[in-house]
Design brief:
2 domains, single chain, eight-stranded mixed β-sheet, binds adenosine-5'-diphosphate, about 375 residues, three-stranded mixed β-sheet, alpha/beta
């Protein structure tokens, strides 16, 4: 009898993983490295966690399946190696096939400048030559229409390859969509969770985002159904958490970080941004007044072992830029433009580090 991988796979497909009820091949738990040497067979099974209670029973069932359905003569050699993926990702649909990196911008509470950071980070990345999309998912306070002065824009749909797709608005070299184009913010509270989530899914899956290097999502503050929709439907590269230096804001930021690092969610934190880190009069940028306390976010970043991506001062022009539809990041020759350019560089660096490590796997040997 000649063994070949398909025979082994067919046998393994008879084994169910009790955690999900799916067969282990369908569940993607059999690695594509089945080795055959005569009647000797070795293969790897992937489990999400080293502590998975089903490891032993699944390994045993896999061996039995091969001996039963292939041949009693098969010798399963050495130990079956179990790869536990510590960064277990949710089963993310491939909703954005042309997008390299998906980054959520979040904050523990409202008013800390999350949308300001998201908009300026998007502009700064685009200025550095990246292809960038920005989705404003903040149903309770959509700000992209105002911050990019596209309040009157009405995105239209176009049939592309037989599908009706929403065409994002283009401004300053970015592709933009906002839930605010579709929902009257005054009625946002009337939107039940499911409705908002469905609208959002459409803005992601049924829009012509095309090829992008960075897709930024400006999330609502705190936690909500919207967050669940995002983490369940997208393979997020990571999250950027924005906070101001006050203790109350930091306490919420800590909760915000924890929300992403929960076992079930497991989204890497790319880092923390300290917004309103100090007040600087535009004409005297070397003068710093620490209105909300000093370096609170920096300490939180150290405590939680996440990178501090940047510190953005309070400058009147940031607020004015937001109100007038001209984000300050458009002009790198200002203190504020510079701060966002540096933030963009830090985000790119952390993203690249993440991508280089992906997936962090960890091999343990299961002794029989
Ligand atoms: P959030 O999205 O967290 O609710 P916003 O980005 O809407 O917060 O910011 C709230 C307000 O603070 C806006 O008016 C914005 O222009 C202003 N703002 C945000 N960051 C700064 C800053 N660094 N300097 C000056 N004003 C800022």
């Amino acid at each position: 009898m000649t063994l070949y991988p398909k025979l082994i796979l067919d046998a393994l497909a008879t084994v169910r993983y009790p955690g999900t009820g799916k067969n282990i091949v369908e569940a993607g738990m059999v690695e594509d490295n089945i080795r055959i040497d005569g009647m000797k067979v070795s293969f790897s099974l992937i489990f999400q966690k080293q502590t998975d209670p089903f490891i032993r029973s699944v390994v045993k069932a896999a061996e039995t399946a091969i001996l039963t359905y292939v041949s009693k003569e098969v010798e399963i050699v050495g130990n079956i190696s179990i790869k536990t993926i510590q960064q277990a990702r949710p089963e993310a649909g491939n909703m954005l096939p042309g997008v390299q990196n998906i980054i959520a911008i979040s904050s523990g509470k409202g008013g800390v400048g999350k949308s300001t950071v998201a908009a300026n980070l998007a502009v700064a990345l685009a200025k550095q030559g990246y292809r960038v999309g920005l989705l404003d998912a903040d149903i309770f306070g959509p700000s992209v229409p105002k911050m990019f002065q596209v309040e009157d824009a009405r995105p239209y749909a176009e049939t592309i390859d037989g599908r009706d797709l929403i065409i994002p608005i283009e401004k300053y070299g970015l592709k933009l969509l906002s839930i605010g184009f579709f929902v009257d913010p005054d009625q946002a509270t009337l939107w039940r969770g499911g409705m908002a989530s469905n609208a959002l899914k459409q803005l992601i899956a049924d829009a012509a985002w095309g090829e992008l290097d960075y897709f930024l999502i400006d999330l609502p503050p705190g936690t909500s159904d919207i967050h669940l929709t995002i983490v369940q439907n997208l393979a997020l590269t990571g999250a950027v958490v924005v906070s101001t230096p006050q203790q109350v804001a930091l306490a919420d930021a800590r909760k915000g970080i924890n929300m992403f690092t929960l076992d079930k969610v497991n989204v890497p934190i790319l880092g923390l941004v300290e917004n309103m880190a100090w007040f600087t009069p535009a004409e005297l940028p070397q003068n710093r007044y620490y209105l909300f306390g000093r370096e609170g976010a920096k300490r939180l970043a150290e405590e939680m072992n996440v990178p501090l991506l940047g510190q953005i001062p309070i400058v009147q022009s940031i607020c004015e830029g937001g109100d007038s539809g001209m984000p300050v990041a458009l002009d790198e020759n200002t203190v504020t433009g510079q701060a966002f350019a540096e933030l963009a560089t830090a985000v790119v660096r952390q993203t690249e580090l993440r991508n280089a490590n992906q997936p962090p796997t960890h091999i343990v040997e299961v002794s029989k």
